[in-house]
Write a structure and sequence with these properties.
The chain is α/β, with parallel strands linked by helices. Strand 4, helix 4 and strand 5 form a beta-alpha-beta unit.
């Protein structure tokens, strides 16, 4: 990743401050522009008001009030085409039983490395050839 990746803005949503900070730092270290939110409500407001626009949302699945799956559904309704990558420290099988998105949905198990995070994001963001 190089200087052009600063054009890619990732919104990280996690209700755990330490996890939010670590994830944001990992993203910044590999060259992304990062915004953070501690709730679905805050995330939706940031997406609506963002300039520059958010290119991808990375959200924890298990959160109080509004879980990551519901946030992903709301993003899909209000901002079609905005990719959502789900993450959780719970095993994938456990979170699927908690109402999380099922198999085939972009998911990253915590803890993850910066290489795993970068690869997961790159797989979801389609960049036009003429931009880079």
């Amino acid at each position: 990743m190089g200087q052009h990746d600063l054009l890619l803005r990732v919104l990280v949503v996690d209700d755990e401050p330490l996890a939010l900070d670590i994830t944001a730092r990992l993203l910044k270290d590999v060259g992304f522009d990062v915004s953070t939110a501690t709730s679905a409500k805050e995330a939706l407001a940031l997406i609506a008001e963002s300039d520059p626009a958010v290119h991808l949302v990375l959200t924890d699945v298990v959160m109080p009030e509004t879980d990551g799956h519901t946030l992903g559904r709301l993003i899909g309704e209000k901002h079609p085409g905005l990719p959502v990558l789900y993450m959780s420290a719970y095993p994938a099988n456990d979170i699927f039983h908690r109402g999380a998105p099922g198999p085939g949905i972009p998911f990253l198990a915590k803890p993850f490395t910066s290489t795993e995070l970068r690869a997961a994001i790159q797989s979801l963001i389609v960049r036009p050839a003429n931009r880079f």
